[in-house]
Amino acid sequence: MLVSVVGRSMEPTLRPGHRVLARRVPLAQVRSGDVVVVVAPAEMTAAGPDRPDGRRDLLIKRAYAVPGEPVPVDRVPLLRDRPERVVPEGQLVVLGDNPPFSHDSRECGYIPEKDVVGVVIRPRLRAG
């Protein structure tokens, strides 16, 4: 699938207007450090959770921690009070490369497996 980069959350890796090619994969194939495409949590959807067409926005972020890895409480304080010490099965922690401009796990916590769309395999395709 081809996805357009909107916003500055992944700068300098990706810039607004870049288009990236993503391959649909299950969460089990995602590794820490991969750039991933995920469905935006409802509270982060630009048109809000009640978008008339029922669709939700896609986000391009970096997988920071995958199931079985330590919960990165230093980077994601929202997860600090959770009882688990490792990322649970079926969950993913994502962060933008440009934190001041990124909406990510720091605001919504874990991304559920059902919202993982794929892994970016060609990160530098330009628009046009």
TrEMBL record:
One of its GO terms (molecular function) is serine-type endopeptidase activity. One of its GO terms (biological process) is signal peptide processing. Residues 3-73, 82-120 form the Peptidase S26 domain. The active site is at residues 9, 61. It is a single-pass type II membrane protein. Pfam families: Peptidase_S26. GO terms for cellular component: plasma membrane. It is found in: Cell membrane. Its main location: membrane. PANTHER family: CHLOROPLAST PROCESSING PEPTIDASE (PTHR43390:SF1), SIGNAL PEPTIDASE I (PTHR43390). Belongs to the peptidase S26 family. This is S26 family signal peptidase.
